[in-house]
Amino acid sequence: MLAVTILGNNSALPAYDRHPTSQVVTLDDNLFLVDCGEGTQQQLAKYRIRWSRINYIFISHLHGDHYFGLPGFLHSMGLLHREHELHLFAPAPLKQILDLQLEAANNSLPYQLHFYPLEDVGAGGVLVHNDRFKVTCFATKHRIPCWGFRFDQVRAPRRVNPEKAIEDFEKAIEIAPAEPHLYQLRLQANQVTLSGCSTGLNVIAPGDELIGLVRGCLSAGAPSLVVSLWAVDDEATAQLMADMYTRLRAGDTPAAALRAAQRRALEEHQHPFFWAPFAVFGRW
Ligand SMILES: [Zn+2]
Fold it and tell me: How far is the CA of 63 from the centre of ligand 1 (A)?
């Protein structure tokens, strides 16, 4: 299957409901990101495109509306513990820009980023050619050096080697994660409640990012989240949750439902340990 998802096609200045240039080319199970303007991460989330499946990025030229979203995107993939390598094809000066930003932030990426300057590409413009696809580039006319990209599907003759097929299958089973990463889930719920102990606590990642279940659930699409800030009491929490959900079902907002449940808990336990461990994040 070949598909193109336009994430943005606006130029530099902001415009209502328009986004700077970026698109995702889908070729079977391969995803290619072409250009990465500001807000690309948000657009990928909106279109529910899994970042982890993007292994190739192509930047056409270095006008900011085509790549200002890239440093943040590369950094976010690191925060999400990406480990597999990423291939970046772009005009040569982008390497210096990315290196300087990482150096200034005293940061490094936890995955291997292979950078290929488009200026170095030989005759024929072949960037990648394997048994599934071929990507070539060609020069285009613009005020600064600029390239276009062509994606071709490679249809290899179907010759099945049974031994190799079994080997591949076993390898796939071995590396398949037992559960999908929370940040890659697509939660459909209106509200997520994590009523266990300390579910709202975070760790501080490089760049002062707070990483935890709150960020994960919001990133996965939960608009509203109720989490605990310390280890909670089993019985008091069970009652609190029952009261909160009764109010939610009656039509209260998450914050109003939690507040009503807390007031009721307060009648039984005066100490905040029992009635105040939960907080609402997101839409309240
Ligand atoms: Zn331009």
Answer: 5
Q: Are 224 and 282 in contact (CB under 8 A)?
A: yes
Query: Which of 28, 65, 131, 152 is an active site residue?
Result: 65
Give the distance from CA 266 to its chain's centroid.
Answer: 40
Spatial separation of the C-alpha atoms in residues 237 and 231, rounded to whole Å: 10
Q: What is the pTM of this model?
A: 0.63
* CA 10–ligand 1 middle distance (angstroms): 11
Q: Where in the chain are all domains bearing CATH 3.60.15.10?
A: 2-156
Confidence of residue 174 (pLDDT cuts 50, 70, 90): low
Highest averaged pLDDT of the listed ranges 57-66, 159-168, 192-201, 206-215? 57-66
- Distance (Å, whole) CA 95 – CA 240: 53
E-strand ranges in 37-181 read 54-58, 86-90, 113-117, 126-129, 133-139, 147-153
For residue 65, indicate whether it is catalytic: yes
Spacing, Cα 11 to ligand 1 middle (Å): 8
User: For the domain 2-156, what is the CATH code?
Assistant: 3.60.15.10
Closest-CA residue to 278 (of 228, 236, 238): 228
CA of 77 from ligand 1 middle (Å) equals: 26
Tell me which of 137 and 15 has the higher pLDDT: 137
With contact defined as beta carbons under 8 Å apart, do 120 and 147 qualify? no
